[in-house]
Amino acid sequence: MTAQKSKSASGAVAVGLATISIVLAAVVFAAETASTGPMHFIETHLGFSPDGGDGSMELLVAVVLVAIITVGGLRLATK
After folding, report:
1. Are 42 and 62 in contact (CB under 8 A)?
2. What is the rounded CA–CA span in Å between residue 22 and residue 7?
3. 16-48 residue pLDDT tens
């Protein structure tokens, strides 16, 4: 019974961390968009524009990061 409680507690922690990460990413995205318009963090921080300035590369990076965080959280929750 103790192992089951420990497993569910670690799953809850993992889901909580994934949720916090997603909310933090949303806040950072909103702050970036509010201050600079559409997403241009690659151009701002790295000094080049791989997508011609339309923000599609930044969107791809954001989606991939959210997917990695979500998969990591779900993996921790199921162990």
Report:
1. no
2. 23
3. 787 888 888 778 777 766 666 656 777 777 788
2-29 core/surface letters (b: 16 or more CB in 10 A; e: else): eeeeeeeeebeebeeebeebeeeeeeeb
Per-residue pLDDT at 1 exceeds 50: no
Q: Distance (Å, rounded) from C-alpha 12 to C-alpha 60?
A: 28
* Structural domain of 37: 2-78
Alpha-carbon gap, residue 69 to 75, rounded angstroms = 10
pTM higher than the cut 0.70: no
C-alpha to C-alpha distance for 73 and 79, rounded to whole angstroms: 10
Domain count along the chain: 1
C-alpha 51/C-alpha 54 separation (Å) is 6
